[in-house]
Amino acid sequence: MICLVYVGFGLLWFSHGVYAAPRSVVPSPHFVPLHSTPSDSAVTLTLALPPTNIEGLHTALYDVSNPASPKYGKHLSKAEVEAFVAPKPESIKAVTNWLATHDLKPEVVSSSGDMLRINLPVSTANSLLSANFTEFLDKNTHTTLTRTLSITIPAEVEDHVQFVFPTTQYVSTFISAPISSRPSVEVVQPPKSLSKRATPPAMCSQQIYPECLQDLYNIPTAAASASNNSLAVSGYLSEMATEDDLSTFFTSLRTDVATAPTFEIVSVDSGITSGNGTLEASLDIQYTVGIATGVPTTFYSVGDSSATGFIDLVNYFLAQDEVPLVLSTSYGFNEIGFTGSEDVAQTFCNAYAQLGARGTSVIFCSGDNGVYSFGYNSQCSAAGTTFGPTFPSTCPFLTSVGGTQGINPEVVAPFSSGGFSNIFARPDYQSSAVSSYLAALGSTNSGLYNTTGRGFPDVSAQALNYLIRESGAWELVLGTSASTPTFASIVALLNDERLKAGKAPLGFVNPLLYSQGANAFNDITNGTNNGCGAEGFPALAGWDAATGLGTPDYSKLLSVVMAAAQST
């Protein structure tokens, strides 16, 4: 499977004046209250202030991402993006003055100043928010969360803060990794001469390794060479990749490369920087460095595996003068957990819009439970269950990657998540493609999904039986955790060619793919993803909610992206 990290957000505020209406929630039954959180326990709250001009950011993002725009490829600077999202001075003043009445001095945790953070005792938090912080057991994950059922904010600051988290939001923590097994077949040793063939090696029907992907998707074997290229890999949950495992991976599976490349490790929120290799990180690094060989690759180890760490990583990138050109992430949430807290999901999504506007291609896994997000098949056991999409895959400002399996033909991987958002409207760039699919779909699964929502995934790649080296042993893994770094690597290689030609990096790539690149994908027309007590979404001609536009053909994509104008 793949993806996680969790979130909890809400609105807060207090003053010696008029109070706004309480913000309250009734959590799902699987959240069970245990006891009040001890008053001397510490909590950390993050406050999001409203941006000055978020619509302007969205317009600017599409201007630099639409190949029909005269501004295509002219990505924004750090200062230009911050001007759109920085809070108004009156918001900063109202919030900091209010916190000062409780002797609280916030830390600014975003370069634009739109996010503040406070550390405080539970007793102070309860007073600040008129709350009752309580320990809740999440019976689905057997983890505990500190939350409250209600908060109250003062009216005079209500318009100056979007939310504070974690407070009244109840989102399950999905700590999941790719499903793995020890290979039952002997680890393949590819031939030293990797000449292109009409069909992939026979062993690719049993296990996927770099040569299989290179053959299937026409990916070049030659190393990338643009020094200003970059590829970032997100890491959470104390996941770690090692040079030893990567070296063995190359010695065994990339025999055409004389010396195994290396990768950098950067710690965010005190993330670990050493240790034994683990499943997700090993997969992510071996199939980025192993496919996008030569592209400078960095593993970002995030110590906080909650939503706080999730947004902290984005804020870390946005604070730099240069952002990574590709960001691959194999973690996520269930979108349904943001019901009633849609502003939180919007803020996350807007953070990815900021990265895209600055030139980052943000790539996310679609999930591994068919139509019902990440995990908990018991919630999707009966026919007629409303489908539950994944997040951030439903954010319209990033590229969501689904999964396929099989060689001839390549078909839907049943576990691959796909569907339609209940929060985000369908973006214009995919309107025609999704409308055609819905017309062909007819009454199938009628009433179980949002027909006007953002459709996902956007693209797909192989997701079954990837061979990896983990802590000195070989493993076979499956999930969109595998397809995501594969597609991210293809984007990084396409960037390499554009950069060498003096062109801008691709950045937010969806408008280009949907408008000019659909024919550069292998259309998947066989199979369905898993549904709830029935089949899910079928793969049909064109875009579909199981595999998106299909799987990539690098050679065809290269022609598309090199024809897209705008030099740097």
Automatic annotation (TrEMBL):
Source superkingdom: Eukaryota
Chemical reaction(s) catalysed: Release of an N-terminal tripeptide from a polypeptide
InterPro entries assigned to the protein according to its UniProt record, in alphabetical order: Peptidase_S8/S53_dom (IPR000209), Peptidase_S8/S53_dom_sf (IPR036852), S53_propep (IPR015366), Sedolisin_dom (IPR030400), Tripeptidyl-peptidase_I (IPR050819)
Pfam families, sorted: Peptidase_S8, Pro-kuma_activ
Gene Ontology molecular function: metal ion binding; serine-type endopeptidase activity; tripeptidyl-peptidase activity
Essential cofactor(s): Ca(2+)
Active site, UniProt feature: 280 (charge relay system), 284 (charge relay system), 481 (charge relay system)
SMART domains in the record: Pro-kuma_activ
Presence of the UniProt keyword Ribosomal protein in the record: no
GO terms for cellular component: extracellular region
UniProt signal peptide: 1-20
GO BP term, example: proteolysis
Binding site for Ca(2+): 523-524, 542, 544
The enzyme's E.C. designation: 3.4.14.10
Gene3D superfamilies linked: Peptidase S8/S53 domain
Keywords linked to the UniProt accession: Calcium, Glycoprotein, Hydrolase, Metal-binding, Protease, Secreted, Serine protease, Signal, Virulence, Zymogen
Cofactor note: Binds 1 Ca(2+) ion per subunit.
Function according to Swiss-Prot or TrEMBL: Secreted tripeptidyl-peptidase which degrades proteins at acidic pHs and is involved in virulence.
Protein name: tripeptidyl-peptidase II
Organism, scientific name: Lentinus tigrinus ALCF2SS1-6
